[in-house]
Amino acid sequence: DEAPDRAETGTQNQEGIAGIGATIDFLASFSEGATRREKLANTFTALHERGTMFASRMWDGLSSLRGVRVYGPPPPARRTPTIAFTIDGKSAEEVTRALVRCGVFTSHGDFYAATVVEVLGVEALVRAGCACYTNDEEVERLIEAVAAI
Fold first, then answer.
1. Which of 26, 86, 97, 115 is deepest in the core (most CB within 10 A)?
2. pLDDT tens for residues 5-52?
């Protein structure tokens, strides 16, 4: 009946609690190590290196295309392996729809950074990113599909 005990936060996220253990085991399975902690550290290092490699390839490939503009700090600056870009004369939605027809899935919008998009002078951005399962063929398919647009 007294604060702070009466400020009930609700039911625990049981699915999240169970899922986080599986997530940790999944990530640890990518690397060798004497302990799960060491495996995770090795996985995070490898994923960072892999993400930097793919981000560099996307950055170089997209920025070499006429009419394509990439935004943000260029690799290898500290960043996520996600590249934001625009194509001259095409809306971000048009680009995203065209890429979907090529089997390349991107997102478009301001990504909750409306002021940044406004300062850049664009309506919206297209965003493509890498994950732990991204491969060379997918990065090349993105670059080729953007070139075709």
1. 86
2. 777 677 888 999 999 999 999 999 999 999 999 999 999 999 999 999
Q: Is the pLDDT of residue 124 over 80?
A: yes
Contacts of 130 (CB under 8 A, 6+ apart): 50, 51, 54, 55, 58, 81, 82, 139
Name the token pair of 81.
């392996």
Tokens representing 51?
């993400």
pLDDT value at 81 more than 80: yes
Separation of alpha carbons 90 and 106, rounded Å: 15
Alpha-carbon gap, residue 106 to 92, rounded angstroms? 10
How many other C-beta atoms can be found within 10 angstroms of the C-beta atom of residue 54?
Answer: 24
- Beta-carbon contacts of residue 149 (< 8 Å; ≥ 6 apart): 87, 90, 95, 98, 99
Select the highest-mean-pLDDT range: 46-50, 63-67, 79-83.
Answer: 63-67
